[in-house]
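Course assignment 3, question 2. Fill in each field.
Student: A.L.
Task: Predict the tertiary structure for the chain below.
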Amino acid sequence: MADAMKIFRLLPADGYELCHPVTQDGFEIFNKVINGLSRAVDWRPLPVKIIQEDQGIALLMSDAPWLGSHALIFRKVALDSLGALLREFGELLPLECDSDDLVVFNPTSVLDAVNEDASSIMRFSNGRIMHISRYVFFPEIAYSADIFKISNLRVSPTFVSQRFVAKWESAGLRGLEFREV
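Answer field:
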C-alpha cells in the first residue's frame, strides 16, 4: 500500500524525441490552454512537430514526445495502455502533426494539494508562487487522484501516482521518467 501512496513528477527520458509547437507563440498557447479547464467543446488542434534529432544526434522514438510537464503529449500506443486512466482525470485533445497522430493531455483534476508551509517555495514580490523546489502535499487531497495539476501555480506540472507509473512501465512504454516528490 505504501507504494500506491507515492506521487511523481514526469521528466523527459534522455535521448528521446521532443514535440515542439510550429508557431512562434506555441509554447505560450500551451501554457494558457492546458490549465485544467475543459477544452473539449471548443478545441482546435494546435500545430506541432516531432523533433527527431538534437545537435546532429538521432533521438529515440518516444511514446510521449516531450513538450513539457504541464502538457503531456501521447502517441496512440500510449493511449492503448493509459487511455482509460487519462480520461478519468482529464481529456485527450488532438494535435495537428504531419508525421504522427498525437494528442495532448489536459488534466482537469486540479487540486489544492500543496502544503505551502512545509514546501520550499520561491515567491514573487506580490506573494504569488514563482517556483516550488520541494513539494509537500496534503496526503488526503493528493492521493485522491492518479493524475493532477495543482492550483498554486499558473503553469502547473502534471503529477501522477504509482498506479500511473506501474501502468506505464508494465506496458513497456518509452520516453518518460518519473521522479518521486
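Instructor remarks: The chain has one domain: 7-165. The mean pLDDT is 94.
Grade: pending
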